[in-house]
Design goal:
The chain has 229 residues and is α/β, with parallel strands linked by helices. The protein is built from nine helices and nine strands. Strand 1 and strand 2 form a beta hairpin.
Length: 229
């Protein structure tokens, strides 16, 4: 037996309708139908806005070209999976942005995003950086060190310029992809890792495989989902 003031307050607080006692069944039916129709319109409006926005933008990527639209579609399809993604393209085309978008749109978004430029580090340092090492494993190893794979646990690791890596490093990376375990340099214990792997290169890996510079078995492990920028 509400008053006009009650009705105003209810509507201000988000009520779709307000019925005063006594009311008939058909009045309730009309109110429910009206509320459902309103909710449907709100949902449709939101979906249309989202679809329009997705046509030109996804995370920090903007583009109307049909090829960019295809890339957006791929990102949305695989973002919330553990699937390994290989991003190819020339320098400056946004490969790092793709990796960050895949992380930001996944359920791992609250976990770490760890980026490693494989081409900027010598092989010995790269293995220690990625897999960690134990004290005394080499000159200068004065303490145990956690690797980037361990640091990225529960999140995403982005390995840039993977095409420049050595054969020895490729063998170790292949094991990580196959078994989801890492082994610190100088240690024989394995550590399980729950990490999503995204890789990038500006090299033609098909050609590198044919020339014997890149392992074919690793290439097929990396090339599960390929995004060409």
């Amino acid at each position: 037996f509400g008053s006009v003031e009650d009705a105003v307050r209810a509507m201000r607080d988000g009520a779709a309708d307000f019925l005063r006692k006594p009311f008939r069944g058909d009045q309730v039916q009309v109110a429910v139908d009206r509320a459902l129709e309103r909710a449907s319109l709100v949902r449709e409006n939101r979906d249309l806005r989202q679809a329009l926005d997705d046509r030109v933008r996804i995370d920090n990527l903007i583009g109307e070209d049909r090829r960019m639209q295809a890339i957006f579609k791929t990102i949305k399809a695989v973002a919330d999976t553990r699937t390994t993604v290989l991003v190819t393209g020339e320098s400056g085309t946004g490969k790092t942005v793709i990796a960050r978008a895949l992380h930001a749109m996944s359920s791992r978004r609250n976990g770490p995003f760890v980026e490693v430029n494989c081409g900027a580090l010598p092989e010995t340092l790269l293995e220690s950086e990625l897999f960690g090492h134990v004290k005394g494993s080499f000159t200068g190893a004065t303490r145990d060190k956690q690797g980037k794979f361990e640091a990225a646990n529960g999140g995403t690791i982005f390995l840039d310029e993977i095409g420049t890596s050595s054969q020895a490093f490729q063998v170790r990376l292949l094991r990580v992809l196959q078994d989801r375990v890492v082994e610190r340099v100088g240690d024989n214990r394995t550590l399980e890792t729950d990490v999503r792997i995204v890789l990038a290169t500006n090299l033609d890996l098909d050609e590198a495989v044919r020339a014997g510079r890149f392992r074919e078995d690793l290439y097929y492990r990396l090339n599960v989902v390929a995004i060409e920028m």
